[in-house]
Amino acid sequence: MAIVGAVIYHVSSRAFPKPLNPLMGIVVAYVAAIVVCFIVLIFTEKSSWSQSFKQMNWAVVGLGVGAAIVEIGFILAYRVGWQLGLTSFVVNVSVTSMLLLIGFIVLRERVSALSILGLCLCSVGLILITFGRHG
Length: 135
Hints:
Helix content: over 70%
Low-confidence stretches: none
Strand content: under 5%
Number of domains: 2
Structural class: mainly alpha
Number of strands: 0
Distance between the termini: 36 Å
Order of helices and strands: HHHHHH
Radius of gyration: 18 Å
Shape: flat
Largest sheet: none
């Protein structure tokens, strides 16, 4: 689901109409997302909605803020000419690097040698793609 959703997301973000204010477009996109979530929620929620509201914390709001910033960032990157595959790769390698560090330092998660090697290879790929784009 995450892969299919991400593909739909990036193709749609890349095709976002340039004259459209990106913030207004994101508002409409979020309304569509809310409708989809409500439909799925109606058919899958086993506990009461009030119980679900009581279980929420700061992370729910953080998810919304983060998602909005991601949306704006990708739409603006595509508007100034970033390529579909390159943009996602640059962002994902950068995010993975930061999350690996946060996981290790803050959450005390174990980081294997293979994970570090994979991150190094992705970083080399990022450098090669970036120089290939501008070289």
